[in-house]
Design a protein that fits this description.
Order of helices and strands: HEHEHEHEHEH
Radius of gyration: 15 Å
Keywords: Hydrolase, Metal-binding
CATH superfamily: Ureohydrolase domain
Number of strands: 5
Helix content: 25-40%
Strand content: 15-25%
CATH architecture: 3-Layer(aba) Sandwich
InterPro entries: Ureohydrolase, Ureohydrolase_dom_sf, Ureohydrolase_Mn_BS
GO molecular function, one term: agmatinase activity
Number of helices: 6
CATH class: Alpha Beta
Largest sheet: 5 strands, parallel
Low-confidence stretches: none
CATH topology: Arginase, Chain A
Strand order of the largest sheet: 3-2-1-4-5
Protein name: SPEB protein
Number of domains: 1
Structural class: alpha/beta
Mean pLDDT: 96
Family: Belongs to the arginase family. Agmatinase subfamily.
Length: 194
């Protein structure tokens, strides 16, 4: 629930305890805009604010599933300039993301990691109940591969955002969101799942 703005104050609190953290960010958008509708704090700007405040270990930030509309002609430039790894959706099409997550695991190491999952990272065929749907996204199976691929890492927090049930009369988006959040909770350190 909530829009992606909620991740900004959460990461402020997390960084206060753990210092700058790595980030696995699943989304259709980078959410690194400088301003939107004249505002610096908006659901399209939280990760730029986090970079500005030193909340992220930028060499350990991975954005997966990025695609779709943007306010910038090259929406990945800012991210790559910060040292983020950007994995556009088209690099994920028609394949397992287990190999990618093997690379991400090495990149994250044993340092603190936060998972931020925007439901619009998934294709709207599976999750239409969101404010900014973008076609050609990830599948639910790929979402599970990403989350389960983080199990055993030093996860210090997670969120799942941008679910808008009123845009999905079937209820599938809310069901998918709840299940993905459950999977994230199961991936937290110390949780026994067997």
């Amino acid at each position: 629930g909530g829009d992606h703005t909620i991740t900004y104050p959460i990461l402020q609190a997390v960084a206060e305890k753990h210092g700058p953290v790595g980030l696995v960010h699943v989304d259709a958008h980078t959410d690194t805009g400088d301003r939107a509708l004249g505002e610096k704090i908006y659901h399209g700007t939280p990760f730029r604010r986090c970079v500005e405040e030193g909340l992220l270990a930028c060499s350990r930030v991975v954005q997966i599933g990025i695609r779709g509309s943007s306010y910038d002609p090259d929406p990945y430039t800012y991210c790559r300039d910060q040292g983020f790894r950007v994995v556009p959706a088209e690099e994920c099409w028609r394949k397992s993301l287990a190999p990618l997550m093997g690379e991400v695991r090495k990149q994250m190491g044993d340092k603190p990691l936060y998972i931020s999952f925007d439901i619009d990272g998934l294709d709207p065929a599976y999750a239409p109940g969101t404010g900014t749907p973008e076609i050609a996204g990830l599948t639910p199976a790929q979402a599970l591969e990403i989350i389960r691929g983080c199990k055993g890492l030093n996860i210090v927090g997670c969120d799942l955002v941008e679910v808008a049930p009123m845009y999905d009369v079937s209820g599938n988006t809310a069901l998918l969101g709840a299940n993905l959040l459950f999977e994230m909770l199961c991936a937290l350190p110390g949780v026994k799942t067997t």
